[in-house]
Design a protein that fits this description.
This protein has strands at 3-7, 10-13, 18-25, 33-39, 46-52, 58-60, 68-73, 78-83, 92-99, 112-113, 117-122. With 123 residues, it is mainly beta. Strands 2, 4, 5, 6, 9, 10 and 11 form a 7-stranded mixed β-sheet that branches. It has a 4-stranded antiparallel β-sheet with strand order 1-3-8-7, with no helix packed on it. A hairpin with a 4-residue loop joins strand 7 and strand 8.
C-alpha cells in the first residue's frame, strides 16, 4: 500500500504564497507521476498540476498557470506545490495523488490519494 501525506496548508491573505508538500511511502511503490487536485465546498474536484517522475515534465490547469509551480524530489518521493499570488478562488482542500502505473500526466487518473490539506485565502 502507498500512503500520501500532505502538509503546508493554512490561512494566507490574497497575494500571498504557500508551499504544499506531499510525501509518498510504500515498499511496493514505484513512482510514475504525482499531481495535485483541489476541491472547494460545493464544487467538483479539479485538477491543478502534475509532474512526470522520470522526465520532470509538468502540466498545469489554466487557472493556476504562471502562479503555481509543481516540483518533485525523487530521492524523497516528495512532490511540492509552490503557490504564489494566491486568490480567494484558490481556497480549497488540496489533495496530492500518485500513480505507479504508466499513466500520462495529462490524464486525471491516479492510483493513490492523500487526505488533503486545507488552503484558505482571505481577501
Amino acid at each position: 500500500q502507498v500512503q500520501l501525506v500532505e502538509s503546508g496548508g493554512g490561512l494566507v491573505q490574497a497575494g500571498g504564497s504557500l508551499r504544499l508538500s506531499c510525501a509518498a511511502s510504500g515498499r511496493t511503490f514505484s513512482n510514475k507521476k504525482m499531481g495535485w487536485f483541489r476541491q472547494a465546498p460545493g464544487k467538483e474536484r479539479e485538477f491543478v498540476a502534475a509532474v512526470s517522475w522520470m522526465s520532470g515534465v509538468t502540466t498545469y490547469s489554466d487557472s493556476v498557470k504562471g502562479r503555481f509551480t509543481i516540483s518533485r524530489d525523487n530521492a524523497k518521493n516528495t512532490v511540492y506545490l509552490q503557490m504564489n499570488s494566491l486568490k480567494p478562488e484558490d481556497t480549497a482542500l488540496y489533495y496530492c495523488a500518485a500513480a505507479d502505473r504508466s499513466i500520462s500526466i495529462y490524464s486525471y487518473n491516479y492510483d493513490y490519494w492523500g487526505q488533503g490539506t486545507q488552503v484558505t485565502v482571505s481577501s
